[in-house]
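Q: Is it fine to ask for two folds in a single conversation?
A: Yes, each is treated on its own. Send the first.
Q: Here.
A: Result:
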Amino acid sequence: MKKYYFLLLLAISYFTTAQTFSLDASFGESGYRKINSTTLSDAIMLPDGQFMTAYNSSSHININKINQNGVVDAAFGTKIIDVDSYSSINESESVKKMVLHNNKIIIIGRANANPTYSLYNMFIVRVNLDGTLDTTFGTNGFTKISLGQNGTADDIVVDDAGNSYVLGYDMGDFIVKFNANGIKDNSFGTNGILALGTFNPIKLYRQNDGKFLLVGSKKNTSTNINESYIERRLADGTYDTSFGNNGSIIMPSSTQSAVTNFEYDYSNNSILLLHYASGGYDSVFLSKIQISDGAFVTGFSNGGRTPNYSFANAPTLYISQIKVLPNSKILVMGNVSNFWTANINTQLFSMRFNGNGTIDYSTSSNGYQIFNTTPPSTGVKAEDVQRLFVLSDGSFVLSYSGSSGGVYGYSSYLTKFTGGFLGVNDTAVDTGQSSLALYPNPVGNTLTIQNKNKGNDSFEYRIFDVSGKMVQNGSSQFNTETHVQELQKGNYIIQIKTKDIRQSLKFIKN
């Protein structure tokens, strides 16, 4: 496929980029909450809007809770978990990811396997919401397995039955399956381990039908260039030959590229892919493919793929987070630096696309926003932008980590931004929207959308959780009960759509 490169020449300097959304100064300390000063960390958001964080320190995994206002929950304290009997866990890679499943927290990473720290074990831990080990999982709460000298974990998905699939690496990439009780499932792959072949996976996803999607890059042996790559496996780990070319898709490129993240849209049978590309200027582009067979969605951008967007004042750019908002806008975030003109620490970078893949300039004349990573007294580089949480009020929280200049070790932060940039509330378009009401709120098993002007007319709806993920969609009628009993407790947005109305309403599920 011929590639199109667009260089967006910007007149406004790197430091004076106009910002139309800002840090939420009421969160933490002037918009930031420092998690730790020693290492990488990860975070999840609980159904009530609070955050749980995990990181290693002094040979332990430390677990904390952060309230919705960015204040550390002192009553929760710091819960300490040991998975390593030696004097320290590897400082840079101990906690790699944590996920929430059925009110349990699962954490993966790697730990030292010998006293000289020359061997590592992959570990998987399950924790209760109070921060204590779930001793019914593995051996007293965790399982460690040897995968080679430098075996580590990178990503994890959990199925409805509680089985965990961990994307890992040691001289090659693989998926390891653990049963719901935390024991390696030797019936999967070869003794529980499925080798993935010669490509570089970045993210793992399990579809509703049990198939696995992996994205990343694969080297073109003819050009020696890594190109964006997607493959899909059946539940047993074999290739899904109905997808792409016998199970895989590669997007030809004249420069290095990779899929760094993606979003599913089951209602429209599509997957939106976020790509990074290097070159004279680093760039970002999007593509959209069909879930069914991996074919491009031709109605998106130019035949399913946008141009490569790059910025003269952001030459060193890496985008890793993507969320499709209730109004179909696409928010992406990552990091940026400009080492060509000055020794600039890696900062936070954000931009928004329209639903068709064009850049949304309505909130920024430049098409992007840049933010410091911490208050001015510190110099943390946002080298690892790990999580993007979209809240029900249209604000969002970012989790990231980075090194502190010449100081050894990493610092990790949560930072919160106001909702003006996201446009969740700009979905309302008709003058009669004030006649809409949702009740009861909080919601039990059903909710009702009341519209005094429309009687019992029909409407389409989509429900999004606090992370921005669509969790339910369908059709219903005004002034009639809509069933939501499958939703877990938490905060949600329901988007209502008719010929005349497009509006979002917030509700709480009990």
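Q: Second one now.
A: Result:
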Amino acid sequence: MSTVNMDRILNACVTMGASDIHLITNRPPVLRIDGGLRSLETKVLDPDDTTALMKSITPDKNQQELQEEGGTDFGFAFADKCRFRVAIFKQRGVISMVLRLIPFKMLTFDELGLPKICAALCRRPRGLFLVTGPTGSGKTTTLASMINYINENFDRHIVTVEEPIEYYHNHKKSIINQRSVGVDVPSFSEALRRVLRQDPDVILVGEMRDLETIEAAVRAAETGHLVFSTVHTTSAAGTITRLVDVFPVSQQEQIRIQLSSNLIAILSQALCPKATGRGRIAAYEFLVVTPAIANLIRENKTYRIDSSIQTGKKLGMQLLDEHLWKLYDEGIISYEEMIDKARAPGALQDKARAKVESMTGKHKHKKKAAEEELKKHTDIIRTN
């Protein structure tokens, strides 16, 4: 395939509203649209095709890394339409590629459906704000919106450390420096070691993936900076446990004390296809660290955090399953999607059954349809 064909694939991704492109041998180009995979009606790719496609967009430095390491990551702009984050790797001795579309347009908090209190938390002068969730759940988009909100509304010096840079930010009311790991700085930990000398107000760490990075991020929050980062966890309480467990046992009490003092919020999210089959929507679990929750963190009682979230609704707090139920109850997501993403699917199944049983006699036809729906999906109920 030629460069022209790569342009056509990139154009198809943009015009069809896809989030990712998969280029692998023995399949045509595949797009991920609303969470599902769809093949383009073009030729099946062979090893020469994927190699040519790779060379058409990959800088020489990354091609060398691919040969030496078996994989490489980078980003590039596609005309004035969007950016793509690219992961290239070898499998069975041939080239495969995955390209993630990064739109230029920043979404607002309302468009993302974020809790209202997020705007107030972004005004905070210091602390640690974590966005968590599995790969592909929209963490990067959420963080980009928060950085853009600060950039538009406050005079701050923002420094981001990413691998690679995904959303590009222009200077607005704030000034912003974006450092790419592997290009501008060798590692996250090295970037964070030096960032405190750069007079930052706000620091974005692309991912807290090791002890050294976590230590540096917490220290930055402790010394008077607002720090944003991501963790690959699926709940607020689980995030705190994961961060503490990274440390040796002898240091775990100290990190609990530091988190209790510096953590301000955890936003855990899951991206769900809409019931209409078009578009996706995020379901959120949201924790705001109150003095009571800080005390639970300090005393290693994270198992009680879920109860505190349930009683903290006036601050915008909610459990993931509560938001999933709301989206299902309003007909925005399907029953099976709610169950699939739920942390306690059995409880939501019982809630859905109780809703069916509460229907009045004049809605018998609706009751029958709902019962059939529940019966149909019983097989997918998981246990914790």
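Q: Anything structural to flag on that second result?
A: Two points. The two ends are 47 Å apart (CA to CA). The chain is about 40% helix and 25% strand.
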